Here is the input.
Amino acid sequence: MQTNTFLQAIKKREPQVGLWVSLCSNYAADIVSTAGYDWALLDMEHSPNEIGVVLSQMQAFQSGNTATIARPMWNDSVVVKRLMDIGSQSLLFPMVQSAEEAQAAVRATRYPPEGIRGVSGTQRGNHFGRVKDYFEQVHNETCVIVQIETMHALNQLEDIAGVDGVDGVFFGPADLAADMGKLGQITDAQLWEQIGNAAKAVEALGKPAGTLVMDASRAASLLNDSFTFVACGSDLGLLARGADKLIADVRRELV
Here is the structure.
């Protein structure tokens, strides 16, 4: 059974620097696979990504030491089953609003009687049947992260984070800002006061906290504080901002 290096690292509270991967391309994934990030989020929620592309992205990341986390488009047991069958060991569940929804996320990753994951004897996740103790060991190497995106969920934080089988809590600043009436204000001080306090509460419960920012210094500051895993940008953002800067630099030199 392959060790989930990301899960082991966050259990030890080793700071994990991540990158959001939204370009839906195995070639783009290959480019960043050996850049040195600890983890990469393969997004299906806000990207036009499908299972086959996620598989090819996971295969691209095998060339480096970056662990992958898949984010399904919803807390959907069918999608989770398919992601785990292609080898996803870590999953980020969006818009978890209650302990019951967190429990549903965990159950989607477990075989009966503990859960509802459908059984396939030969799939990429068990190396096509070659991992003989897969059924007994897979839950030990599966990382379930729940995403907090509303004030309602924030108010249920202790119950959500306390669910057995939840390995980490991720705070979505964009959606939390919107729910606070601060749409688009993802650096708002009041927003980050709320998130910072919540991260400390999660840590006090014995669970690691994570989030996404688009600034290197901010990412480092959070990792030096109460956060264990932080994404410091996205491949989409790197391409867009790099393209903007390049054309601006050239036009500035034109006479």
